[in-house]
Structures are given as structure tokens and as C-alpha cells.
Amino acid sequence: MTNEHPQTATQPAASAHTPAASPNPAALRELLLALADDEFIFGFANSEWTGIAPVLEEDIAFSSLAQDELGHARALYELAAALSGTTADALAYGRPPEGFRCAQLVERPRGDWAYSVMRQFLYDTADAVRLHSLRASSYAPLAQTVAGIVREEKYHLLHGQTWLARLAEGGTEARARQAAAFDALWADALALFEPVEGEDLLLAAGVLAEPWAALQQRWIGQLEEPLRRYGLPFPFEEQGALWHPLVAPAYGGRRGLRSPSFQPLYDTITSVYRIDPGAQW
Amino acid sequence: MTTLSEDAIWSTLAEVPDPELPHISLVDLGVILRVELDAPARRARVLLMPTFLGCPALQLMREQIAERLALLGLDAQVEVTMEQIWTSDRISESGRSKLAAAGIAPPAPNSTASGHSALIPLLESARCPHCGSRDTTMESLFGPTLCRAIAHCRSCRQPFEQFKPI
Asked: Which of A70, A264, A273, B93 has the largest CB neighbor count within 10 A?
């Protein structure tokens, strides 16, 4: 996925910004892989619409979304690779399926159009929440990379927002498919905020500014208004100051638990690498 | 061989076109953060800021910079940096004029307006590069490259491309 020369690595100098409590390397790796794998696998999933989207603009949109996500994945894999002296390619293509730390949301089959666009809406709103929090990370290379990613995020948000409205204001079939998509998506989407292994260590070192449970609450709070405005189900109950989901999150992805749909996707993504890991393009 | 100076390097870089927007140079685009010259060793270090992180032109930019500086007799190391984050506000005035002349609306300044929800970012309407009207609509947030969107002008009824503000 990258043709960077090792002697001109693109990582910012970490040494200049070493925080007081240096982060636990294993926990940091878990975090970086969770973020990178989400973007990598979601980018791949979005690229499945290239050539077959319902209208040309959406063909271009999903292809561009995919390209953005793969660019973000590369930047994040390079941070993870620098920790262990490996390469972004080796991380993206050279790990076994159980080595992936993505949420299961991103590995599901693309489903119908309503499922894909509402998945994009939920993923990118959640991603925006965590990215904004990560800008305050004490791990400078991550904070810098996230600052670069955040700039591009508004176009993803606008795209998702547009389709939320378009389906909600559409005909009976559009509304029915949108409602079915949300029903199928909630458990997986909530699991985007499944804590990574070692979250307490990352919080102590300031690598994470906030627990992911708090980010999940913020995200739910942000969704309330648009979902209620369009009369869509909002499956949460207010309990004290917290939102309690009425759907159980499908956790496990961050621990490497892969759903059956991951294997065929993995086989496709890694097919060239498995033939020739050192191939030059 | 001419006398080497950092100014000479900047002048050379001002002639290297953006691979995807050849109407403007890398200096117009504002992606060169810093140039460091070691004149006695005839070596230079150029720090390049990525635009969109998935932009495939980045590698090409690095190669073209190294090739052009080699013509000055310099061994150039081109490094991609996140030390400072590029935004479309870094495009120079001359770059903006050249984009408009090529029919691509330059990006509106990044809005610092408050009062909008985190979920609903603001996009200012672009000025039509054909007739100058502000009565334009965004047709597609995504276009032929990651940095361009497709807009439509209600006044002259022409479609046009817009450099996306980021």
C-alpha cells in the first residue's frame, strides 16, 4: 500500500514531544491498530461500490471515501509500524485475521444501498467524535496525524448527513429500507467504542484524553437530534445523565474476534501480498 | 553551476507543477513547509506537507522535487512532514488566481464560524469561475480528484470544479 523508502520515513519526530509518562508500547499498538484497521477495512468495504453505485456521483463519492480512508489507514499504520520496526504494508497485509483490531461493523457485507449509506453515516459521525478527542492526545505523532485526518472529515459527515435526509424524506420503500438498515447497524455501530486492550494505561499516559465509553455517550447525544427530527428510531433511554442503549453492542472486534464475513474479505485484500510479500510496484 | 541559495531552491520549486493541478506550482499550493540547504555538501532537505492524506500525487511530488533540484546539482532529500498541517488557506493569492483562470473555483477560506452543530459542518458557496456569480450550488462533494468537488452555477448555468476547502 505504500512505496515509501525506509530511509525517508514520514513519521514526525516523536522524541521532541515525549510525554512525561511514556505510553505502554503494547497498549499504544492496540490503539493504533484499532484506528488503522477500522479505516483500512472500511475503505475497502466502501470501494466495493466503485463501478456499481446507483448513480455516477455516488460511484465517485464512495470511491473517494474509500481513497480517503485508505490514506488515513496508511498514515496510522506507519505510526504503528514505527513502534515495532516493521512496515505499513506488513501490518496491513501480513497479519493473520485474528490480528486485526477493527470493529465488526466495517467487515460486514455491503448490504443494500440504504445499509451502506447509513453505515457510512454512523461510522463517520463516530469517527469524528473519537478523532476530535484524539487531537488532545499526549502522543504527539498521533495528535499530528489526527489533525491531518480531521480536515477531510467534514466531507464524509456532509455525505452521510445528506443521505440520512434523502432516505428519510424519500418514499415508503426508502424509509422502510433506512429503518431496516438502522436496526441491523446499531449493535455493530455502538461497538466502534469498544475499549481497546490497555485503555487504562493509555488514559494514565494521556494518549487517550477520554475513555471510549465517554466518547460513545457523546456520539449518542449528537445523534439524538437528527434521528428524532426524521422520526427514526433512537434506541436509547436516558438514565440519570447517561444514555443507556436498548440494543446490546456487538463487542469483540477490538480483541480480534472476527465475524464470518471477514475471511472472504481478508482473502481478497491479501491475495497479492500472500503470493509475493516483497512485490515492488 | 550557479551559486546555490535557499532562494534559488524556492525559485526552482515555484516551477514544479502540482501533478493533479498543473496550472499551479507546489509553491503556489503551499505544500513546501521548509527548505534547508547544506551548500558545501550540495545537499538539500525539503519538507513537504501532504494535502489529502490519500492523495496519490504525493509520491510524484517528491520525485519531481528531487529531479528538479538534481538539475541544480543538489542531492535532495524530500521528507513528508506532519509537523504542521496543510490547509487550503495556504494556497497563495497567485495560486488562487491561476486556479480560477483554469476554471477551478479556489477554496473559500476555512470557516471559523461558530454556532453550528459538530454534525453539520458549513460549506460556503463557491464563486463561479466563469461568470463570478455567488449563486452556485454544490452538486457533488466528490470529484475527479480528492481535492475537487463539482458545483453548478445558477446564473450562467455551467458546471464547474471547486477546490475543496480543508
From this structure: A70
